[in-house]
Specification:
Largest sheet: 6 strands, parallel
Distance between the termini: 3 Å
Oligomer: single chain
Number of helices: 9
Structural class: alpha/beta
Amino acid sequence: MAEQGYVIAVVGATGAVGREMLLMLEDMDLPIKEVKLLASARSAGLEVPFRGKDLVVQELSEESFQGVDVALFSAGGARSKEYADAAVKAGAIVVDNSSAFRMEENVPLVVPEVNAHALDDHEGIVANPNCSTIQMMLPLQALEQAAGIERVIVSTYQSASGAGQAGIDELWAQTRSYIEKRPVENKVFAKPLPFDVLPQIGDFEPSGYTTEEEKMFYESRKILGLPELAVSATCARVPVLRGHLESVSVDLKKALSVEEARKAFEAFPGLVVVDDPVNMDYPTAHACVGHRETYVGRIRADHVLPKTLHFWVACDNLWKGAAWNAVQIVESLHERGLLRG
């Protein structure tokens, strides 16, 4: 590390996740010399506040990465594939928030609380997992350590912000149109979202699963280091602005009581247990927004299967589900001495 700190580039700095990445960087102790904001030509010239200064957004090009130590990419898979190699050749480590490299064998797919050790084998690119996968990894790893896991069934309830700023804007516009009894137009989502639930995120595959559901299957296996793990997901979009929710059922290798599971969750870094059904205290989307932690509640034993547990998970998908996990990866690279100096 240079004496003055690291030079960090944020690609897609004006997008929903890019702006949250800046908030994360602003609030952390990582030594930072300079932050470069990179985006498309239409965003070039915009000013974005950072640590009391206004940073000017620069147009992204292959020459943007000279002198950069870490490049945080959040501009979509096409931009990642086009510019990540240029960043690596310039000497930067790329932390990519898209799906472009997640399943490549030589690219670590990292949730720092679960598998930070995978960073030791990076070859210039580190992948940030899918938002719905990230929040499920923490409780699953807690259970894997406590009892071993054999099968996971998950249903997700994902907010509009999972589709970026365009998703947020479309939900607002559609809701206004619906209330004002005007035609509801949809471009981002497959169907109008207000006052409905859409059991589709991504495109449908020949398997009958969507691309989002397939991500949860393959990414979970890779992150947990369990290549034979049985995972089945149903991913739905709900008319919530921000915050993803999941209902998870896990078949364990050995039985755990609810109290034992609760203790395993409470002891795991980054997890917060909110589980007081008598007082109707459980994780919600609104309550998790603006928090780095992942919240677990509604912890129940199956009525019939002695080794099966059910629980509910909530997370700010723009923070732990994206921006915070990416910045945590940078922090882990620093702590492990993997950033260039």
